[in-house]
Write a structure and sequence with these properties.
By secondary structure, this protein is α/β, with parallel strands linked by helices. The protein is built from 14 helices and 11 strands. The strands form 2 sheets. The protein has an 8-stranded mixed β-sheet with strand order 3-4-2-1-8-9-11-10. A 3-stranded mixed β-sheet has the order 5-7-6. Strand 3 and strand 4 form a beta hairpin. It starts with a helix and ends with a helix. 33% of the residues are buried.
């Protein structure tokens, strides 16, 4: 049995399994959770026309999976407005800023087909209903309100989260949205560091201007693919920096998350911190594992093959 499996089977994690939350799951659970899903409790949210509430389904690969066919927001109202747009991936509780979007190639995706009223819940209420007092990994993509949802959580749950993923906008896509600079500003005061940031976007190109080009209609759509992309939104992943007094259980799980994300330096720091604070012998193994991964990363460098054999004993320690 490998080290990660033994960590998941430790008393700390069998008593308190990992809690994963995916808001805006869109019918597919986060692929990065597949490696440890069988040990975890997952809450997945996605709004549609089915009956609201949750169902427990243990056949999806998780220890426990709760599927909520509901909107999640920071509002405690029972219902909320929801704007159904040309693309379902752009639908939001916020009204699209069509004037600002006119300059962008994907503007038509944000055109509102209709505004409906749907049932609404909060993340805090769901956690309370399930008698959960933590979120270990939060992934949210709610078209403009990711930060508001995170901020609506109790402060201790925010600070004890181990991984937080958000997808804030950079350009003006929705009225009153939580934009990238607001996320940066808010997380400055929290015990997190930015582990990854992927900037995505669209073309600064009006659809009407493309239509006016003297080109066959079949060629016009390729103008968008050939034109330079500009930043429109960003996918952010924050890791807890462990500057707060987290439990032995959190250190074990945080180490696993760091290793699975190939953040071996962070995993080594967590393991050292855990050994200093707790007597659990697993931390000695975790330190050795992380150190070994850091050494093996060296072998991936193309300029090192000549010295690989000379120092082979070091890499096998």
């Amino acid at each position: 049995m490998n080290l990660i499996d033994r960590i998941f089977l430790s008393k700390e994690l069998t008593d308190e399994p990992p809690v994963l939350v995916d808001i805006g799951a869109s019918g597919s659970i986060h692929k990065e959770w597949k490696a440890f899903a069988k040990h975890a409790v997952c809450l997945a949210f996605d709004a549609d026309d089915r009956e609201f509430g949750y169902i427990s389904d243990e056949s999806k690969g998780f220890k426990k999976l709760y599927i909520y066919n509901s909107l999640v927001s920071a509002s405690e109202r029972d219902t909320t407005d929801f704007y159904l747009t040309g693309s379902p991936y752009c639908s939001s509780t916020l009204e699209p800023d069509n004037k600002a979007l006119e300059e962008w190639a994907f503007a038509s995706k944000f055109e509102v087909d209709k505004k409906v009223t749907v049932k609404n819940t909060t993340l805090s209420k769901v956690l309370s209903d399930l008698n959960l007092n933590k979120i270990d990994w939060l992934k949210t993509d709610t078209q403009g309100i990711d930060l508001s949802i995170f901020r609506s959580l109790p402060e201790d749950i925010q600070k004890r989260a181990l991984v937080v993923e958000l997808e804030p906008g950079i350009i003006d896509s929705y009225r009153g949205e939580d934009k990238l600079y607001k996320v940066f500003e808010y997380f400055e005061s929290l015990p997190f560091w930015l582990e990854a940031m992927t900037v995505k976007g669209s073309q600064r190109l009006r659809e009407d201007d493309v239509e006016s080009l003297h080109l066959p209609n079949k060629l016009k759509k390729f103008i968008f693919y050939s034109h330079k992309n500009s930043p429109g939104w960003a996918e952010l992943k924050y890791f807890n920096d462990f500057s707060e007094k987290l439990s032995v259980r959190d250190h074990l799980l945080g180490w696993v998350f760091a290793v699975l994300e190939k953040q071996y330096g962070h995993s080594l720091s967590i393991a050292h911190h855990g050994r200093e604070r707790f007597s659990n012998p697993l931390f000695n193994e975790m330190i050795k594992f992380s150190e070994g991964k850091l050494k093996k990363e060296l072998l991936k460098l193309k300029f090192l093959p000549a010295v690989k054999e000379k120092f082979s004993k070091l890499f096998n320690q």
